[in-house]
Amino acid sequence: MTERISGWWRWVVVAVCIYMAILISNRYLPVNPQMVWVRAGEYALWAAITLGAIARFFPALTPYGWRPVTIFLGAILSGLEIFIGAGPGTKVRVDEWMTALIGIAVVAILARVLPAAITRLWFGQEVVRRGPIARPPH
Known about the structure:
mainly alpha; 5 helices
């Protein structure tokens, strides 16, 4: 297995901070049906940072592993955040969860189609000095 890329922990700390901010802000802000798309933006930002953290922590997984792990982790964490605790009815919660998943999916799709120069920076491939890391698919 390829060793971890230095600085991975910074990305993890930022991802955890973003998730904690999502948890806190969504606990205290009232649910507004017109603002449900804010969930997509929140979780898209979280997914972008988390994808970079996973790529740096597990470089051997390659983009084909990083994206599904990010989607799976995002589905679990967003579901926990949305469905646990007091809040609106189940229908509204399902809508919020699906919107959060759309934000996560958009990031995973962008990771596939962005130019290699951008994904190299995003996935930490610019700092590797020894051995090849799998290039993102074109």
